[in-house]
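Model the whole thing, not chain by chain.
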Amino acid sequence: MSGAWQRDGYEAVIGLEIHVQLDTASKMFCACPNRYGDEPNTNVCMVCLAHPGALPVANAEAVRQSARVGLALGCRIPDTSEFSRKQYFYPDSPKAYQISQYDQPLCAEGSFHVPGEGAFTVGITRAHLEEDAAKMIHAGGDAGRIQGSAGSVVDFNRAGTPLLEIVTEPDLRSPEQARRFLTLLRATVVAIGASDCDMEKGSLRADANVSIRPIGSEGYGTKTELKNMNSFRFLERGIEAELERQLGLVLAGEEVRQETLHFDPATGGLTSLRSKEEAHDYRYFPEPDLLPVTQDPDALAALAGQLPELPVARFARLTGTGLPEATALLLATEPELAAYYDDLAERVGDPKVAANWVMGELQAHLNAAGIAADASPVTPERLAGLVALVVEGAINQTSAKEVFQALVEDPTATAAGVVEARGLAQMGDADELGAIVDGVLAAHPDEVAAFKGGREQVIGFLVGQCMKASGGRADAKALQALLRERLSA
Amino acid sequence: MAIDVIGLTAERAAALLRGRECTAEELAQAYLDRIAAVDGEIHSYLHVDPERTLAAARAQDAGSGEGLAGVPIAYKDLLSTRGVPTTAGSRILEGFVPIEDADVVRWGDEAGLVSLGKTNLDEFAMGSSTEHSAYGPTRNPWDTARVPGGSSGGSAAVVAAGCAPWALGTDTGGSIRQPAAFCGLVGLMPTYGSVSRFGVVAFACSLEQVGPMTLTVRDAALLQQVIARDSGRDATCTGPREPIAVPEPGRLDGVTFGVPRAELEAGVEEGVRARFDESLAIAVSLGARLVDVELPYARHGLAAYYVIAPAEASANLSRFDGVRYGLRVDAPDVRAMYEATRDAGFGAEVKRRIMIGTYALSAGYHDAYYVQAQRVRTLIRRDFDAAFAGVDAILLPTAPTVAFPIGARLDDPLAMYANDIFTLPVNLAGIPALSVPNGLSEGLPTGLQIIGPAHAENLLLRLGAAFEAEHAFDPVPPALRSAS
Amino acid sequence: MSDVELTPDEVRHVAALARLGLADAEVERLGRELTSILGHVNTIAQLPIADVPPTKHANPHGDALRPDEARPGAARAEALANAPDPTAEGFRVPPIGA
């Protein structure tokens, strides 16, 4: 398989557990606002503080969004799913049990295809709905490390946020595949509108189960769990580091120990999270306060029919219009950019021309400004106006870049207005161009002689001189034709 | 006027108020006086706030004054009361003040009921005698050397002692019906899911309901009308299937009672058995037919119950961790704080049940204990379903004994648990049952339990009213009669 | 199968799962009591009922879901009023420890 991690006769076996915070108005089991960034403990109630007597009631929208994600991941949505209590004591778990799902998840086995060069398919084991934990603010400044800190303050705003946990089969064979899979998965969830999947805010979190095995072997090696890698790059680097560590152990004749590891992006090092690995006994049992969630097949079919265009489909559509795979994949995984592109392509009427602008000037401007496509002052409508002028031949490429910059700087300007105001209209008039060409030829007798002597490449220099003399406004094609005509005369 | 609150029913109290024979404030004051006079001995209230009670009563006097408005009530201290301490009878919740009312308390407020206070109970409702309260035992007004039953023993004792016209209790395995029987009262365990549990401190979620404890069957119906509702905040609640009706006593022509004879062999006290047999005769005299029914799995109810209830409880009580409310015992790290807090905060019976439940759910035992108990639960439900195919209701004694002496069973958990043998199967099946006074044995009240199919509350209340009229039982303990 | 006997180590393991700090005397007493109770409970362990579906809910007709409507929660001061060790913003806990 292309892109597989293979070293010294061993291959990588990677599975991901992905937590997606669902973008609902209220929390999973109570009506408290589901909102990030508020003052600590201001979105809390009897239920999410686990006061005695509080009862959970499940959020219908969280169930609906989870089913939509499940459908997009090719999952089977069983008729009935069930909430269970997963018991563990920790200050971030107010009930000391998390309401989760155990043997009857909302979404069962699915598969997810990652297209493009070295395309691969990942099995989805399950996706289940649960509630997020509270946030611990660790005192003593040592924010990352838990152990040895001087105590913590608990903020229950996040407690009870709806969380969809997506578990993959151990089908990934390289850190790169893990990154590509997660990128496309994120794009899919964002396209659905179920979550903003912002890794910085923690609305998308990924853990990786990593092991190695002899190439060709069917069994599995001892796996370790890498926790909470909070960017795509760290995910790739963390898995890479762990694979190298495991390979080193195995080649040295040592055993890989089953443990949970934390990747430190600053040092590239891995540290064991639990020194005393106490065997977990979560004592799952069906949540008696909640009834099973039943799904109506007709409603599910309707839900599936109402899904927006998903990245995988978008990729297929875009490559079908003749866009290169790399361009199509980028557009497929960046929803805002894709929406921008679609809008522009429709206005411009030529996918490739639109793609060139989006991948070129627009991307450069978005990167420089650090904004998403939908936040750019150069709307598809304004850019389409500019592209039309280029296509008509009213301005040339050089002027077009200047006009684009002007559109960025002045949100009220139009392309036509800028061209008019700055006199950028393309110089295509034969007399005007003829005068310039004659002037340039007269000023460069050596180059003219060289051309006539067979050094045809000199024409590029002469074109440049003419363009300069025209103030960048000359129609490059007409200019070239005119030059050749005069030189061969 | 001087109001004699001993033996005063809620229905009569409402009539006094509506007839302007007294004000809500006068009525509340009369109960507060009564509480002040006798509760030192009975110890049935955990929290009384006379100023708050009188203010609530005055608010009712100033209002439009309809229905039950102004009638006092007592709440089991398992029910959350906003701004009023709620302990669940546990040291671990000492000083805890809920930020919301339980749904049933809110509905009581909306109906104009005036709270007299919070009543004693076995810690977290785990017990059958109210001796497991962290705040000391409640005494039975019929014989203060004896227990009032439990876990709603405080609610039973306040009504029997004339310290409230009625009260709300909760029933997880008999905790309304058994203390009602021990104290000569009417107690209704409603169909599971007909009353909202929101705000009821959870012991075993899949088994418990809130229900009325009253002097008469009609009062039980009136109070059930207030609380049998769905608020949308308890996903297991759908409210009653039909409105609750206040029954009139009448004949029982056409009614078929099932009698599970085999169950009666299991250690029923002689006097209790004799009173029960008399009630069977009364049923026949009123025109009912008796048939034998088999409940072959009911005898396994105790074992199934003592897996399911502790299993749920072990999880429900994990939230008492010293972080957000309640007791905290300081320690150098979180885990030590948890262990010290929970060791100091929970009493012996609660620890026992947490241990049983944790064990039953732990790796390797989950299927053998927990899942097996849920299968027995299915079989018990099927037993009742099969029986109700041929009978309208099933009759059993509420408890196999009369109220036992304080301390008699404290050191023998199994003997204590066995007192609920006739009530537990009902909770496992999720069906309603009514306990009505069934005469005295050795001078102490016994109870007749009438069990019906799901949502048969109106039938049970009608049947109960018929027995009640025939027995003409005086719910006022003799010692109190002479006092008044 | 009424001969289940909980050893002190088993009692301590279960107590650790439940975060109950037990004194040695309690361990001994609970071992005896649990052995007796589980002995009774074990009367159902032998029943040949593996094909019977377990009952998980007493009322199968409940309404499982609520609409996604947000309402303001409690005031922070009210939420913190019951806290054993509040700060201005939250609930303080001792260090997590080893």
